[in-house]
Specification:
The protein is mostly helical. It has a domain of 27 residues.
Length: 103
Amino acid sequence: MMRWAPDARRVARGHMWSAIGLMAASTAGCAGSQSVLDPVGPQNRTINHLFYAMLAVASVIWIAVVVAAFWAAFSRRRVTREDLEPIVSAPNEEHRRHIGVVG
């Protein structure tokens, strides 16, 4: 079992509090007159509607691509005549020249 040194615990605790402070500071911009999530003016509402329309279209396209990728990866191929024929033909008697040496 690895034991942490007191300095390492203090550093880890400092990183944790720094991350919490950064998250709190970044969420402070989510309200007020110039918030992206709370449009106030008519121009802001228009841009907000355009953003959500583009988000919906992009989401539908992304889902279609992911479904197509999974379908292509997991669907079975149809068996054709070429699939049933061997790729390499069995050697015939003309190709067996060294049968006496080997066999």
